[in-house]
């Protein structure tokens, strides 16, 4: 049944927008709460930050000077902004593939109905996801501490290193350490996404494969994977956006240090907007410009992945 | 290096990491013998216009003011509402509240906002119309409590300066058990020199078999690197401002001194201690509360930290035997450390220009400027945020050690000149000044982490950047009509061994 069949007269004189709105006023009324929330908490902040990005404004006094694109020009010449941007990109590239691969492996294993206690394992793997970041930060600071930290005890005891490693204080290691913590915390979510994807594989295919004498590995590679592959684009998109929003973890562990070595974009924005050096004014306009540029980058990534989804769908049977 | 196997307890670590004020757990005792006596109203008080609302940054202030205001409300027949918010929220709540008319009757300003800006913007109003005996009241405060350009403007009184900023965030605090491993016996009468400080850290580390690193710092908090460096340099004889556009600015000649031999020497001392292996491992990922907790657990020998550690350790770690002394100074030097002004501007309270109950708020201000109010504060807060009346600190209930810490700071900390008192146009300079990145704190952290390697070169670059930034801010401020010159920042009559009294 087409939409036209359902509720719009197929023929007849065209009516104005106002008339149509009035005719469906009750329907539109139900949209109002959602629109108000969307406008207040998403649309308005987006528009406001774009406006603020054109100002020289500290954020707390009435002196706002319109400076056009000056903040953007200064940002592009700001080595700390550029470094933070690429650090965010690095973090995404370092974490997302690993997170997706681990999540997939775990999902395939736990999707096996013959595996006993799979629900228990799922819960255990998902536990870090629901644990607050602040708790994770404190626990990880203990675990990774070079002073009596269990991980350092383990690797020094095993003779892997001569002296304790400062995982979160070493400029060379800090981003890798944070990436490891991040993957550990969020792989459970990716696993759940993959498990949902696996539910779309019809039981008949498993049954047919079993009757054909196909091995478990072959089922996974030649039956399951082709079916769930399109989901990878969506899962990758969600994971990438999540990896770009890593502020709580970094702020709670390293605060972007040592000496900017873990300062990703969100920490840069926070530092310029809300945490200026003592006794100086914050730069909300400048930070807003950084936020807008970062938002555009995420939007670009989103568009790329949406295009990838469409392309993948077109390749599916039934889509020509 | 192998460290001992008796780790700090999780409980202790969590306690430090959460950085909760110990006082929060206890009900405050405003007065030593009886309930606080609010006395007769200071004037014929108007009828309440809704509740009396008060906003500050919480922590110990919340421990004191929430019940204090409630008792005041009972005494005066007015409902009171207290809110304590983190600074990040004050930075948004107060400006928004002022704009839409919902700001509380009394509030503290966003942390980085010079009071003169709030006065210029019309956020706050003078106390003079509400406190009948205001000249007499002001006279009860120690000299330097009311500064034109900070809490005074054109002879009118704006801010309540109820706490003293005569605090050093870098006193040398040490565990006596650890110090017993060295040849030194530091005390307020016997401070350590830089060389002794370094030697003590090395001896603690070595003589404990590497189990107790000699020195710890919350190095993930970049401000700790700034404070430690600048205060040790000040003890070496440098004398400059400590925050904002006057960070490292020498008021005696109008030049920045962030590349001076004193600052270079302080940084090189920290690097030498790192290279000695006597700095706690992992300091670059520790915050200050964690470093404090490690010290109290006996896992580190010495820390350069503020007086607020004293009541926390006394309450949380009663078995921890610790001492304190001056910030270390080089052999033969005996400089002071500095604060930008005697009253602590971060704690200063202001009267909303559109307050619903201005007379009641002003009366609470007035009470906090009496010996009784100051003593009530000191009874609750002790040396953490000392009362601005020395007499209140002397007669308040606190441990002998807490009282001694305050006494030491009376000797060690001096107030610098205040630029705004020379010319209020410097408020505009403060607003326009763009701190170079990296600043002094980040530079020292980078040097310690090894990402920067040339101490003198890095500090030369920073010093020049600071000077250029100041010139740029002055030029821009003058373009807007500020009418200031850099020469006005030279206070040739200032003796750096004393508070600047103008």
TrEMBL record, chain A:
GO terms for biological process: transmembrane transport. Residues 85-305 form the ABC transmembrane type-1 domain. It holds the Pfam family BPD_transp_1. GO terms for cellular component: plasma membrane. Gene3D superfamilies: MetI-like. CDD domains: TM_PBP2. The chain crosses the membrane at residues 28-47, 89-111, 123-144, 173-198, 219-241, 286-309. Belongs to the binding-protein-dependent transport system permease family. Signal peptide: none annotated. Keywords: Cell membrane, Membrane, Transmembrane, Transmembrane helix, Transport. It is a multi-pass membrane protein. The keyword Calcium does not apply. It is found in: Cell membrane. This is Carbohydrate ABC transporter membrane protein 1, CUT1 family.
UniProtKB/TrEMBL annotation, chain B:
Keywords: Signal, Transport. Gene3D superfamilies: Periplasmic binding protein-like II. Residues 1-31 form the signal peptide. PROSITE patterns: TAT. It comes from the Bacteria. It is found in: Periplasm. Pfam families: SBP_bac_1. The keyword Signal applies. Its main location: periplasm. Belongs to the bacterial solute-binding protein 1 family. Part of the ABC transporter complex UgpBAEC involved in sn-glycerol-3-phosphate (G3P) import. Binds G3P. The complex is composed of two ATP-binding proteins (UgpC), two transmembrane proteins (UgpA and UgpE) and a solute-binding protein (UgpB). This is sn-glycerol-3-phosphate-binding periplasmic protein UgpB.
